[in-house]
Amino acid sequence: MNSLSGKEVTMNFQEKLIFLRNQLRLSQEELAEQIGISRQAVAKWESGRTLPDINNLIQLSNIFRISIDRLVKEEKGGCSMEFLTEEGKKKEDFLAFLLKAKKSTYAGYGEEGTPSRPSSHDLTLQDGKYLYLDTYLGGEKFAGEEGVWIEDKPVWVMNYAGRVLHENFSGDFLRKCLSEATKELPYRGPLLYKDGDYTYHCRVQGGMDWFQGMEEIFYMEIKVYECYFHGGDIL
C-alpha cells in the first residue's frame, strides 16, 4: 500500500481497491460475496491482471461510498513539506507535533481555552518551540482555522468550514475519525473509516505546502455531515 511518509503518493486502481478493502476490514472473499463474484476475480483486480466491468464498478462504488470516477482515476495525495526540508528531522518533528496537537485537542476532547473572539471555541497546545491553535465559530454550521507557530513565527495554516446535515450525526464518531490522522494524511481523518453504521470519507489534493480537501460522514445511506478545508505553509 502507499504509505510513503512526507512524499506525494500516486494510487492506481488496484492499490486503491486494496486500501479501501482493508480499511473496511474485508477479506477478498467477503468483498466478492457482497458483489456476487468469485474471490479469484477480486484477486485479479488487485493484481492488475483484469479490471471490473461497469456493473461491478457500480457495486464497488456503493460499497466504498466513493464515486466511480475517483475509484478508477489515479490520484496524487500524501504529504509534502517543502518549507521544512533543510533538515529531515525538522519535518518529522513538525508532523509529530501537528498530529499530537490534533489528537490532543478537539479529537481528544481537549479543554477549551479563553475565547480569542466573541463566542469562539479555542483549543491550544504548546510543546517547546511549537504552538498549535484551533479556533472556530458556530456549532451545527461552523468555520474555523488551525495554525502552527515555531518560535512565535506562523508557519502553517488550515481553514475549514462545514455543517451537520442530519440528526443522526455523531460528534463522537467524527472525533474518532480525526484521531486516526497519520503522517501521510495529517489534514483531517483517513481516506476511509467505518464503525458500525457510520462511514467517513476524506479526499485531499496537493501536499502540506498547498492543499484542499473535503470530508463527509454517512449514517447508513444518509449523508449527515460535510466539511471543506484548505491551507498550506505561510513562510
Defining key terms:
single chain; 235 residues; alpha+beta; 434 Repressor (Amino-terminal Domain); 2 domains; 8-stranded antiparallel sheet; two-stranded antiparallel sheet; 7 helices; globular; disordered N terminus
Characterization of this structure:
InterPro entries: Cro/C1-type_HTH, DUF5680, Lambda_DNA-bd_dom_sf. Keywords: DNA-binding. Residues 17-71 form the HTH cro/C1-type domain. Pfam families: DUF5680, HTH_3. The strands form two sheets. Strands 3-4-5-6-10-9-8-7 form an eight-stranded antiparallel β-sheet, with helices on one face. Strands 1-2 form a two-stranded antiparallel sheet. Residues 1-9 have low confidence and may be disordered. The protein starts with 7 loop residues before the first strand and ends with a strand. It has two domains: 8-76, 434 Repressor (Amino-terminal Domain) (Orthogonal Bundle), CATH 1.10.260; 79-233, no CATH class. Strand 7 and strand 8 form a beta hairpin. With 235 residues, it is α+β, with helices and mostly antiparallel strands. It contains seven helices and ten strands. The protein has helices at residues 13-23, 28-35, 39-47, 54-64, 68-72, 88-104, 171-178, and strands at 8-11, 75-78, 121-127, 130-138, 141-150, 153-164, 192-195, 198-207, 210-219, 222-233.
